[in-house]
C-alpha cells in the first residue's frame, strides 16, 4: 500500500490535485500531502486517474481491487472480440465438377462459421497459357457462394496463381 502512495507522489508534478473520495464523491482541490493523509485514514491507496487534467485527478481506492477490475474488463472485451480466420481453397484449371462442388461445399461451411475464404487457382507449366479458364473457374466459384458471401478482393493474378477472397455477409453467420 505504501509503495503505491510513494510512486504516485513521485509522479505527480502539480502541488495540488483534484481529489475524488472512495465512494466517488468529489472532495475538491487539495494538496498532495492532504490527499495522501485522507487515503491513509481510509486505509486505501491514492491513485492518479487523469494526469493530463489541470490539476491532475486522483482517487482514493483499493489499488489491488482496481487492477483486478481492469483485468476483468480487458478479459471480457477479448471474449467479445470476433476472430476471423482466413481459410484457403486451392483449385486448378482442370478441376473436375465433382471436386469443384466438394470444395465449394467446404468453402460454404467455412463462411457459415464466420471465416473468410481465399480461393486460389494454381497454374502449372503450360496451364499458364490458359489463365482465362482459371478466371472463369473463380467467377463460377464466387457465383456459387454469392448468397452467403461477398467478394472482399476481386480475382487477381499473382505469380502462378489467381486469388479471390470471400467474406461472410452480415447477418448470415450461424453458430
Features:
four-stranded mixed sheet; alpha/beta; 5 helices; 175 residues; disordered N terminus
What does this structure look like?
The protein is α/β, with parallel strands linked by helices and 175 residues long. The protein has five helices and eight strands, in the order αββαββαβαβαββ. A four-stranded mixed beta sheet has the order 2-1-4-3. It has a four-stranded mixed beta sheet with strand order 5-6-8-7, covered by helices on one side. It is rod-shaped. It starts with a helix and ends in a 7-residue tail after the last strand.
Uncertain residue segments: 1-10
Strand order of the largest sheet: 2-1-4-3
Instruction: Please indicate the percent range of residues in DSSP E strands (runs of 2 or more).
Output: 25-35%
* Mean model confidence by pLDDT: 85
- What structural class results from the helix and strand content? alpha/beta
Query: How many beta-strand runs?
Result: 8
Helix content: 25-40%
If helices are DSSP runs of H or I spanning 4 or more residues, what is the number of helices? 5
What are the secondary-structure elements, in order, as H or E? HEEHEEHEHEHEE
Largest sheet: 4 strands, mixed
**How much is the radius of gyration in Å?**
30 Å
| Large-scale geometry | rod-shaped
Determine the N-to-C terminus distance.
Answer: 47 Å
Amino acid at each position: 500500500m505504501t509503495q503505491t502512495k510513494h510512486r504516485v507522489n513521485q509522479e505527480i508534478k502539480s502541488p495540488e490535485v483534484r481529489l475524488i473520495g472512495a465512494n466517488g464523491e468529489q472532495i475538491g482541490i487539495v494538496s498532495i500531502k492532504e490527499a495522501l493523509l485522507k487515503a491513509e485514514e481510509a486505509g486505501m491507496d491514492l491513485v492518479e486517474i487523469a494526469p493530463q487534467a489541470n490539476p491532475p485527478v486522483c482517487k482514493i481506492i483499493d489499488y489491488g481491487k482496481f487492477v483486478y477490475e481492469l483485468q476483468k474488463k480487458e478479459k471480457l472485451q477479448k471474449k467479445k472480440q470476433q476472430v476471423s480466420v482466413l481459410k484457403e481453397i486451392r483449385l486448378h484449371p482442370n478441376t473436375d465438377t465433382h471436386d469443384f462442388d466438394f470444395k465449394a461445399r467446404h468453402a460454404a461451411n467455412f463462411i457459415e462459421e464466420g471465416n473468410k475464404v481465399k480461393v486460389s487457382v494454381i497454374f502449372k507449366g503450360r496451364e499458364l497459357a490458359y489463365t482465362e479458364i482459371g478466371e472463369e473457374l473463380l467467377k463460377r466459384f464466387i457465383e456459387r457462394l454469392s448468397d452467403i458471401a461477398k467478394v472482399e478482393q476481386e480475382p487477381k493474378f499473382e505469380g502462378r496463381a489467381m486469388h479471390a477472397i470471400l467474406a461472410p455477409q452480415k447477418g448470415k453467420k450461424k453458430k
